[in-house]
Amino acid sequence: MVEFKNNLEHNYIISNGIRLHYVTQGEGELILLLHGFPEFWYSWRHQIPELAKNYKVVALDLRGYNDSEKPQAIEAYAISELLKDIEGVIKGLGYETCILVGHDWGGVVAWHFAYTYSDMVKKLIVMNLPHPSLFAQAFKSNPQQMLRSWYAIFFQLPSIPEFLFQANNYSLIAAAFTETATNKTAFTQQDLEAYKEAAAKPGALTAMINYYRCNFKGISLQQEWRVLEIPTMLIWGENDTALGKELTYNTQEYVRDFQLHYISNSGHWVQQEQPELVNQYLQEFLDINQ
């Protein structure tokens, strides 16, 4: 197993009937970090020690990933279940509120959680995942975005995606990072091995892909997206090959207190490709909104 230093504490928590793994560092107000596909808590390795200087940082393995439990049913990965997981984690850790940070699929969960459990989120930070309403609009009317999201359609096939990801020692997992990153120095061989090892755990690949299988058809079915009152920051790597920059336009119509930071020389993996700048924006936003 790839070793990661920095005095991280590994723990498990039962939430929504699921055993979830997380790493934690620091003390104080809770910052909850939610990763995306095909990652796990490790995608926040550059942020955890910095944020832990002032907060209790918890980086979760979402259900189905790495060392968290992996339910077999596709419907176990519905957004509604994922939100209950987060609610249970916050309360199970002894908190009533948190600062919620999400990237990619973690951003999907974070956006929905902020709307559904507004009283539990003090501040919201999302990276390279647009507001759900804007994404739904683009997916239905923007041919370019439809092409960018081809993989979500491919993931609807049974078994074939898992077979391809497993081939050649999970080389496609590594390629997901190296082939789409703008900053080619962002991922060491150790980083890539960590992601491959997590994906190779029994049941993980199917669980990870089931996020797409379960939620693809019902994308953004929430009917009313009111104006969100929670202070929110969106950080966006400008060279994202999966999600176009235009998906960020007009986000301010959905969020009352909103900040947007574009980061050049970064693709989809923004907190790993440009960690120092991301950390700077995080600290500035958290200090301003104390």
Write down the CATH class: Alpha Beta
**Low-pLDDT segments:** none
Instruction: Please name the CATH topology.
Output: Rossmann fold
The structural class is alpha/beta
Order of helices and strands: EEEHEHEHEHHHHHHEEHH
Portion in strands: 15-25%
Beta strands, count: 8
Main sheet characteristics: 8 strands, mixed
Shape: globular
Taking strands numbered 1, 2, ... along the chain, how are they ordered across the largest sheet?
Answer: 1-2-4-3-5-6-7-8
Going by CATH, what is the homologous superfamily?
Alpha/Beta hydrolase fold, catalytic domain
- Write the CATH architecture name: 3-Layer(aba) Sandwich
Q: Any idea what the radius of gyration is? A: 17 Å
* Helix-residue proportion: 25-40%
Number of domains: 1
What distance lies between the first and last C-alpha atoms, to the nearest angstrom? 38 Å
Fold blueprint:
Blueprint: E1 9-15, E2 18-25, E3 30-34, H1 48-51, E4 56-60, H2 79-92, E5 98-103, H3 105-116, E6 121-127, H4 132-141, H5 143-148, H6 150-154, H7 160-178, H8 189-199, H9 204-215, E7 232-237, E8 258-263, H10 270-273, H11 275-288
Helix pairs in contact: 2-3, 7-8
Protein name: AB hydrolase superfamily protein YfhM
Pfam families: Abhydrolase_1 (PF00561)
GO molecular function: hydrolase activity
Protein architecture, described:
Helices cover 38% and strands 17% of the residues. It is of the alpha/beta class and 290 residues long. It has one domain (9-288): Rossmann fold, CATH 3.40.50. An eight-stranded mixed β-sheet has the order 1-2-4-3-5-6-7-8, sandwiched between helices. Strand 3, helix 1 (48-51) and strand 4 (56-60) form a beta-alpha-beta unit. Helix 2 crosses helix 3 and helix 7 (160-178) runs antiparallel to helix 8. The radius of gyration is 17 Å and the shape is globular. The mean pLDDT is 93. One of its GO terms (molecular function) is hydrolase activity. Its EC number is 3.-.-.-. InterPro entries: AB_hydrolase_1 (IPR000073), AB_hydrolase_fold (IPR029058), Epox_hydrolase-like (IPR000639).
